[in-house]
Structure to design on (223 residues):
């Protein structure tokens, strides 16, 4: 059987399972959505936000792009952000990068062309701003993963400066911004930082350095 047909069969099984558990499930979906979260993440096929957080349909508004970048000229992202914050009134916006990100690796390696090269300018700007703390690491994995972390930090600050977020905070809307990294090596999410209306954006600290597995094994258990 062709693989795309397997997707259709899986969809039928999924829908049947949900209606077996709750016959009115899709009836309630038609009534509208009221998610608590907006997720801005990477397009990588290994990173599935609803699956890895066990969020049911209707619980999360989602935008994904290569390397989870916040670009002021990206009308797609800016439209998603505006709708999520101003209309859906989400309380939490999450930017989640992931270790081993191909877009971040391409930013370090170069050689990209076309739309991908133009898109990654935002990531190259992050590298230029944090070059020393990225390039001081010994291995390619360490450099990629450190750039993943500081990229999440810088994109979160960019997000906080957007007109949509600033307008919401000025109006007293409760809105919290979160920077996370997903570890594809073990499936765990690592919270890096939070920003709210009282955060001084010019002094947001760098996230803690990535902890590799070899280092983790050497640490005392009480840390």
């Amino acid at each position: 059987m062709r693989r795309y047909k397997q997707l259709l069969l899986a969809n039928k099984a999924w829908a049947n399972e949900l209606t077996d558990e709750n016959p009115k499930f899709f009836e309630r979906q038609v009534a509208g959505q009221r998610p608590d979260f907006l997720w801005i993440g990477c397009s990588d096929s290994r990173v599935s936000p609803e699956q890895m957080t066990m969020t049911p349909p209707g619980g999360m508004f989602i935008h994904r792009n290569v390397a989870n970048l916040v670009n002021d000229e990206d009308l797609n992202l800016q439209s998603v952000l505006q709708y999520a914050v101003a209309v859906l009134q989400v309380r939490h916006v999450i930017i989640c990068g992931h270790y081993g990100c191909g877009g971040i690796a391409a930013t370090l390696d170069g050689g990209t062309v076309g739309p991908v090269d133009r898109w990654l300018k935002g990531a190259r700007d992050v590298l230029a701003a944090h070059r020393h703390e990225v390039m001081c690491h010994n291995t390619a994995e360490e450099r990629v993963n450190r750039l993943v972390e500081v990229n999440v930090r810088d994109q979160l600050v960019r997000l906080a400066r957007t007109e949509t977020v600033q307008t919401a905070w000025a109006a007293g809307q409760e809105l919290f911004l979160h920077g996370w990294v997903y570890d594809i090596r073990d499936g765990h999410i690592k919270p890096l930082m939070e920003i709210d209306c009282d955060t001084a954006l010019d002094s947001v600290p760098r996230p803690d350095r990535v902890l590799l597995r070899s280092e983790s094994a050497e640490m005392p258990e009480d840390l």
Observations:
- Strands lie at 37-42, 60-65, 92-98, 176-182, 189-195.
- Residues 140-161 form the longest helix (22 residues).
- Residues 49 and 55 are 8 Å apart (CA to CA).
- The chain is about 50% helix and 15% strand.
